[in-house]
Design goal:
The structure holds two protein chains of two kinds. Chain A has helices at residues 5-12, 16-38, 41-57, 68-91, 104-107, 115-120, 125-136, 141-148, 152-176. By secondary structure, chain A is mostly helical. Chain A folds into two domains: 1-95, RNA polymerase sigma factor, region 2, helix turn helix motif (Rna Polymerase Sigma Factor, Chain: A), CATH 1.10.1740; 98-177, Winged helix-like DNA-binding domain superfamily/Winged helix DNA-binding domain (Arc Repressor Mutant, subunit A), CATH 1.10.10. The N and C termini of chain B lie far apart (127 Å). The chains are: A mainly alpha, B mainly alpha. The interface between A and B is large, with 42 and 36 residues.
């Protein structure tokens, strides 16, 4: 997934085919990540749209053309955080928040071929975002804390507990075989 | 003591590298992290709907985007203040200048009335003055008013000079 800096230059000049090509290249990635984290197609589509609209209209804020991809990803993750916060406010007002890392049920499951997919399908949306940022995008806990407006120890705890659970399940599956 | 997940992922300092050579548990944890990252590349990609692109397309900027140069508010405020002061000063100057022209015109008219001599082209000049007076009634621009008053006074001055010459001749 690469966007050439010459493409960014063309976009700066208002070249419409360059915008189209950029959207066609990056939107499946942005949409798929948002869908995996938020779990709803309509929300993922909204995050994708908002991210591209924001990026295309604020290109003057991008200092280095070679950093376009991490920059638009960061915009998308910001919108994802905003959405998760709104979603939590509307659904969990006055309720006790569920544990981010599930549950005894998790232990009895068998790990699929793709461990990441398995992990993401058994943790809360907040935890999914943290796992994705830490493992796939290589964000540090400091950066995650800054983005999600939570403490570093929260993201450290999510990551270590998720990985520990996954190891436990994986070990159980190996013994079962 | 085992490495943290962050240390394992970055795997940059010598202490971590040394520990990894000896610790089987941390090696397994690092392998798991790498495996999970590799899993991300195998995940299927989904495309957003066509309508999503249409909405993005609508908002695409048509003009080339240039870096914005933001002028500090204090400088902008002092510039605007300066322009307003200059305009006000200019307006005051114009107004003051018109008043001088009107006073001068009144003086000429008094002198002209006192002289009872008719000269050549007098009718034509008086007709010109009446035209200027009519224009002055409708003119709103102070600058144009000033020019009209100057023109009026020149005619009056010329008339007075001609009258003086005629009087001397008589």
């Amino acid at each position: 997934m690469k966007i050439d800096k010459s493409l960014v230059k063309l976009m700066r000049k208002g070249d419409e085919p360059a915008f189209t090509l950029c959207y066609q290249t990056l939107s499946p990635f942005i949409y798929s990540v948002a869908l995996r984290i938020c779990g709803r197609a309509a929300v993922a589509e909204e995050i994708t749209q908002d991210s591209f609209i924001k990026a295309f209209n604020s290109l003057e804020q991008l200092k280095n053309d070679t950093h376009f991809v991490p920059w638009i990803k960061r915009i998308a993750f910001n919108y994802t955080v905003t959405h998760l916060r709104k979603d939590k406010e509307s659904t969990l007002t006055g309720e006790v928040e569920q544990d981010d890392i599930l549950t005894d049920e998790f232990d009895s499951l068998v790990v699929h071929q793709n461990q990441l997919e398995f992990l993401l399908s058994h943790i809360s949306s907040d935890a999914k975002l943290i796992i994705w940022l830490f493992i796939v995008e290589g964000y540090s806990h400091t950066e995650i804390a800054e983005l999600t407006n939570k403490t570093q120890s929260y993201s450290k705890s999510i990551v270590s507990r998720s990985l520990a659970k996954l190891r436990k399940v994986d070990k159980g599956a190996r013994y079962a075989l | 003591m085992h490495c943290s997940d962050e240390e394992l992922i970055s795997n940059s300092d010598n202490k971590t590298k040394l520990h990894l050579k000896m610790c089987h548990e941390c090696q397994q944890r690092l392998w798991q992290l790498k495996q999970l990252k590799a899993n991300a590349e195998q995940l299927p990609l989904y495309k957003p709907s066509e309508s999503s692109w249409l909405k993005v397309k609508e908002s695409i900027p048509k003009q080339p985007q240039r870096k914005r140069f933001i002028i500090p508010r204090s400088i902008a405020a002092s510039f605007i203040g300066g322009v307003l002061a200059a305009l006000a000063g200019n307006n005051f100057y114009q107004q003051h200048s018109i008043e001088q022209q009107v006073d001068l015109s009144t003086d000429y008219e008094k002198q002209f009335v006192l002289m009872e001599v008719t000269t050549q082209n007098m009718e034509h000049d008086l007709w010109k003055i009446s035209q200027i007076d009519q224009t002055l009634n409708h003119e709103k621009s102070t600058l144009k008013q000033k020019k009209l008053w100057q023109e009026r006074n020149q005619i009056l001055k010329r008339l007075l000079e001609q009258q003086n010459v005629s009087k001397e001749v008589i």
